[in-house]
């Protein structure tokens, strides 16, 4: 009987366990299908009903649909179990197919709280934040007004500029006939409106307006015009394999470089030259200079190197044609088209002097100032006059504008000499008649050049205004008070004529005064106001009222007044010094009250003479030491002692105090504050060394800072106050002597 009962209970238990497993499996299936249906409804709302029609009808478990015959009761039950759920749980449509449903009730799983399906016009909002209201769309008129008045970001970017360019290109005057291009992105599917047809799809990007830098036109060299193409290719192939070159330094293509190139031509038809600053920055100009001075042809150029070909008829033409080539380089090769900038620069520099052929920048070639005469007989600085109510000095804005103007001007002169610049000054005055600014470059590689000395010499000789001076350029402005030579000549002639007229008037006035004699009689009844007679009358009337004093009495009174004034000044100074001393003493007393020196411990370790001598020798060999400054003994010094004692037994403290009593007082203070043992005090070449031993029973303290000592800032303030008091008392002592 007992065994049968056990079998029945076990069977009942197994059936309950199987039922619970079925319920959990059904709940998992329902939750996963619910999530899938919600996601599909969110992705495409229009196809929700079609997809839900093909979903299979889910059979509900008998344990869940206990009251499926009454849908209202099921709804009420679900609402009672979860009051915070805003979505009602819909009953299953197949709940009536299970008549043998159990009466057991279990809580609703958390994944079945939401609705299984949504209507086609409904969307599930799974976020906690409510949707934000949309802003009303602006009309076209409001947008136009806003674009004119309001400040918006992005109106000057690349997109805005590209729109402006497109709008300008589409103007009636700028439209050109072009072939029709069919854009597939302009078509739209399922819409016939013109507005929708003009809209572009989101993945179609706008074309960017890209403005590329114009490529510099390749310069046709003389070798390409003269030599045959096969010969040129052969020479370039040989030039690429060359590894021996002539070094061209900062001075440029000098006679030494030309001689080395010609000596290389004796054994080889090619010679390589490698350039240094500044010619390596302008290899076109370097090629022209090399071809000009050597008479060869540059056939290959690479970075800062070039290869020169001596030519087919080198033996015949090596000693001819150099002077003509120099003239051609200055005034241009015949048939070559010169730019307007170069033509105007040559016209401006014409007649000022010989040109600098080794110029490392583009043409026009400047004037070589070193070839101008050092002394010009009869040279005088120009006369200068500025208009009335004007100032000859330049304002900051004027100086800035003149410097900007000088940047674009060609270089007029090239200078490598510091002194004796009268020839250059005369050429600058001649240039100032046509140009307000003189731009002078300093030669590269010339030893002992001093731009400051050059600028001062030119300012003294010309009287101009220095706009800029550095190691590359000197720029001089002729000034507001500058007068051209013609105007200065007219002014001097006019002044001479006016002076002559003044002299004639003065001589005629003297002749007229000598011819007419006027007798002045003081007895006549005339006014005496402002005359000598009026002064004599006043002296006769009121002279007796003033007490007569002798000269020595006046000097005595003046000396007494000076002494009284000096005494008042000294009393004022004494009062100020006493106030300073009093204030300093008050602050010093306040700081001294915060400092409580530690007394020496009566129970101290005793060192023998041998131990002291040993520690003293150890300390003398130490390289590391602790330097004591003007602050004296404060908490940072004691902390430094502890840090030294962490690695060694002995520490050496160096102090720069002069009197020995102060040194002994400092040593005893360090011994008392640190708890160490004073070994000795040694005299050094500069200052004294205090040697301290940490002791045999030393233990590293847990707290480094001492509360009874001053901080670093307070110690510095105390030192300054003591110094101030000492200086004030010394001033009092000096003034009392």
UniProtKB/TrEMBL annotation:
Bias regions of kind Basic and acidic residues — which residues? 135-155
GO biological process terms on file: Group II intron splicing; mRNA processing
Give start and end of each CRM domain. Answer: 225-321, 392-489, 605-705
In residue numbers, the region (Disordered) covers 64-155, 169-195
Q: Name one GO cellular component term.
A: chloroplast
Instruction: Indicate the segments annotated as coiled coil, or none if absent.
Output: 546-580
Biased region (Low complexity) positions are 64-78, 175-192
Q: Which UniProt keywords apply?
A: Chloroplast, Coiled coil, mRNA processing, mRNA splicing, Plastid, Repeat, Ribonucleoprotein, RNA-binding, Transit peptide
InterPro entries under this entry?
CRS1/CFM2/CFM3, RNA-binding_CRM, YhbY-like_sf
Supply the name of the protein. Answer: CRM domain-containing protein
């Amino acid at each position: 009987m007992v065994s049968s009962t056990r079998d029945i209970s076990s069977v009942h238990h197994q059936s309950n366990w199987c039922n619970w497993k079925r319920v959990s499996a059904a709940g998992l299936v329902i939750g996963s299908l619910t999530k899938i249906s919600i996601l599909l409804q969110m992705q495409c709302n229009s196809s929700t009903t079609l997809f839900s029609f093909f979903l299979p009808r889910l059979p509900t478990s008998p344990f869940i649909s206990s009251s499926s015959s009454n849908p209202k009761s099921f709804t009420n039950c679900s609402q009672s179990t979860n009051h915070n759920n805003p979505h009602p749980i819909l009953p299953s449509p197949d709940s009536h197919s299970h008549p043998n449903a159990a009466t057991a009730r279990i809580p609703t799983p958390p994944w079945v709280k939401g609705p299984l399906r949504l209507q086609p016009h409904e969307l599930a909002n799974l976020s906690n934040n409510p949707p934000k209201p949309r802003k009303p769309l602006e009309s076209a008129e409001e947008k136009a007004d806003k674009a004119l008045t309001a400040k918006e970001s992005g109106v000057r970017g690349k997109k805005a500029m590209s729109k402006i360019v497109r709008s300008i290109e589409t103007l009636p005057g700028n439209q050109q006939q072009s072939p029709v291009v069919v854009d597939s992105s302009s078509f739209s599917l399922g819409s016939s409106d013109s507005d929708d047809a003009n809209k572009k799809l989101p993945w179609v990007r706008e074309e960017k307006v890209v403005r590329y830098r114009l490529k510099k036109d390749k310069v046709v060299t003389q070798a390409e015009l003269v030599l045959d193409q096969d010969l040129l290719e052969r020479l370039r192939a040989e030039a690429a394999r060359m590894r021996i070159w002539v070094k061209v330094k900062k001075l440029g293509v000098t006679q030494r470089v030309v001689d080395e190139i010609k000596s290389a031509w004796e054994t080889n038809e090619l010679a390589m030259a490698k350039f240094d600053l500044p010619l390596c920055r302008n290899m076109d100009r370097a090629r022209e200079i090399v071809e000009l001075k050597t008479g060869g042809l540059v056939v290959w150029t690479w970075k800062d190197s070039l290869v020169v070909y001596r030519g087919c008829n080198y033996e015949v033409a090596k000693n001819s044609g150099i002077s003509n080539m120099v003239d051609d380089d200055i005034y241009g090769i015949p048939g070559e088209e010169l730019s307007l900038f170069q033509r105007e620069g040559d016209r401006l520099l014409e007649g000022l002097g010989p040109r600098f052929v080794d110029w490392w920048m583009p043409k026009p070639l400047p004037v070589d100032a070193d070839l101008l005469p050092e002394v010009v007989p009869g040279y005088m600085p120009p006369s200068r006059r500025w208009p009335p109510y004007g100032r000859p000095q330049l304002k900051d804005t004027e100086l800035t504008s003149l410097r900007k103007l000088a940047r674009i001007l060609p270089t007029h002169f090239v200078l490598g000499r510091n002194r004796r610049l009268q020839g250059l000054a005369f050429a600058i005055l001649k240039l100032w008649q046509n140009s307000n600014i003189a731009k002078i470059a300093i030669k590269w590689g010339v030893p002992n050049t001093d731009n400051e000395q050059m600028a001062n010499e030119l300012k003294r000789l010309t009287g101009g205004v220095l706009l800029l001076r550095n190691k590359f350029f000197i720029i001089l402005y002729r000034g507001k008070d500058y007068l051209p030579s013609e105007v200065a000549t007219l002014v001097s002639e006019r002044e001479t004529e006016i002076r002559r007229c003044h002299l004639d008037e003065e001589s005629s006035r003297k002749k007229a005064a000598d011819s007419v004699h006027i007798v002045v009689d003081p007895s006549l009844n005339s006014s005496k106001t402002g005359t000598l007679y009026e002064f004599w009358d006043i002296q006769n009337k009121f002279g007796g009222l003033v007490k007569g004093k002798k000269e020595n009495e006046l000097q005595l009174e003046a000396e007494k007044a000076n002494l009284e004034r000096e005494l008042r000044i000294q009393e004022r100074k004494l009062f100020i010094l006493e106030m300073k001393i009093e204030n300093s003493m008050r602050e010093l007393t306040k700081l001294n009250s915060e400092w409580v020196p530690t007394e020496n411990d009566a129970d101290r370790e005793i060192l023998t003479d041998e131990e002291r001598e040993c520690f003293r020798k150890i300390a003398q060999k130490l390289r590391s030491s602790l330097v004591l400054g003007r602050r004296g003994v404060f908490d940072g010094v004691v902390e430094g002692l502890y840090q030294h004692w962490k690695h060694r037994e002995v520490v050496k403290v160096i102090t720069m105090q002069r009197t020995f009593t102060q040194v002994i007082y400092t040593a005893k203070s360090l011994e008392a504050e640190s708890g160490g043992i004073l070994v000795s005090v040694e005299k050094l070449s500069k200052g004294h060394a205090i040697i301290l031993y940490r002791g045999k029973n030393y233990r590293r303290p847990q707290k480094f800072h001492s509360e009874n000592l001053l901080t670093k800032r307070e110690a510095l303030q105390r030192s300054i106050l003591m110094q101030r008091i000492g200086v004030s008392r010394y001033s009092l002592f000096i003034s009392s002597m």
